[in-house]
Amino acid sequence: MTVAASPVPRAPWRLWRSPYLWLATIHIFGDSVVVLTSGLLVLCATTVVLLGFPLAAIGIPLSKGANHLVYAIAGWERARARITRGQEVPPLMPPPPTGSRTDDALAALGDPGLWRQLTYYAVLLPLAIVWIIAIVVAWSIPPVLIALPAYYSQFAASQSQLGPFTIDTVTKASVVAAIAAVFLLLVSPLMMRSASAADGWLARMLLGPSETGVLAERVTQLVESRQQVVDSVEAERRRMERDLHDGAQQRLVSLAMTLGLAKNRLGDREPSVRALIEEAHKEAKQAIVEIRDLTRGLHPPVLTDRGLDAALSAVAARSPVPVRLSVDVQPRPSLTIESIAYFVVTEALANVAKHAEAAQAEVKVTRVGDVLRVEVRDDGQGGADPAGGTGLRGLTDRVAGVDGRLTVDSPPGGGTTLIAEVPCG
To answer: Which InterPro entries does this one have (predicted)?
Structure first.
């Protein structure tokens, strides 16, 4: 964000101790030099941008180069504001290259940043004149008037004229000197502070991005960072699934096979030992089933290998409630979006099996443009309330994590319709 345009203290009696008072004076005094140098360069560069484009092979590179020159000059002005006023103005960015010289030149010609920066130097021209007058009024005239008692008598007929007033006595000269001293101590610093603040406001408005642009950029950054978090979580789910599938599950399978061999070799001997081995064998096979179900819930390998159609077909086949499935998601979305859609369907069908008392269910997964739509219907008893359980709340939170939306329509006795819409552009 932009720092305050002028760090000069507000209280007049503190202004004289602030180094920024003098740096601000130097800055606004230098505006006239900037207008005559940088301003003319920007005007020439903008003219090249306007007139160079029709020159085709020669003019297109000139237009692009002139556009970048304007940004470089504006960068010098932002650096000057940072040094003299302590003001940080975020830079404007030139149009990104498109790979086409013609398109790049057209982008340079219609670049809003180019015209904002040109406007800055155009507005700075009359302001620089105002600032010079303000500096003269603030710092030159008061010292001259403070010294008036010492030289007023040197004027002809021992009189000096101050506008409509005639200064012909030392008392009048002393009053003028006192007023000038008060003006110098209290008003002059405030004039410089106000001029610096106005100059800083102009730089912030025209040399930096607008507040809307800053907010839009921040929103973009937050969306990107959130997407990175979601993607990292999904990657961690896939890693856990691989570790369980290739590690713990394989060890349990090996253990179950070893226990089966031990049971067969033992035969009818040692009935008590055989009973223990059979119990351990049964527990090992049950653990394998549970780990397999867990890995399917995390991220089934078939989802990565073959996509939503194959993964959801397996889910529908395992469902105790008959499921009619329709999947049309071309082009295929990202793995993160596929994982969320898979999770929505599996959780919804689990709820149907546990609570709905339905005779059948229907699942439709379609992609319309950049939106993946997941619809799960059943003909059960209805009455599902997202606020009444953690399952639907978890679905809502996971869908909302990628800017999606989940709605549940479940009138008592009328079945349940769950619709999730997730952006997948």
So the answer is: HATPase_C_sf (IPR036890), HATPase_dom (IPR003594), Put_sensor_dom (IPR025828), Sensor_HK_TwoCompSys (IPR050482), Sig_transdc_His_kin_sub3_dim/P (IPR011712)
Dist. CA 302–CA 317, nearest whole Å:
14
Angle between helices 188-207 and 112-135 (to 10 degrees): 170
> Letter for the amino acid at 224?
E
Cα(133)–Cα(30) distance, integer angstroms: 13
Q: Rounded distance, CA 359 to CA 39, Å?
A: 78
pLDDT digits (tens, 9 = 90+) for 247-266: 666 777 777 777 777 777 77
Yes or no: say if 416 and 409 are a contact pair by the CB < 8 Å rule. yes
Residue 405 has φ and ψ, to the nearest 5°, of -140, 135
Q: What's the Rg (C-alpha) of the chain? A: 39
- CA–CA separation, 371 vs 28, rounded Å? 53
**CATH fold for the domain made of 302-423:** Heat Shock Protein 90 (3.30.565)
- Residues 223-239: what's their mean pLDDT? 62
Question: Using CA atoms, how far apart are residues 14 and 28, in angstroms rounded to an integer?
Answer: 20
Tokens 């155009």 -> residue: 122
The residue assigned the tokens 């970048």 is: 68
Residue with tokens 């008003």: 187
Report the C-alpha gap between 317 and 308 in whole angstroms. 14
Per-residue model confidence as pLDDT tens digits over 17-60: 777 788 888 899 999 888 888 888 888 877 877 776 565 556 56
Tens of pLDDT along 91-107?
Answer: 888 887 777 777 777 77
Contact yes or no for 327/373 (Cβ under 8 A): no
pTM: predicted TM-score of the whole model, two decimal places:
0.54
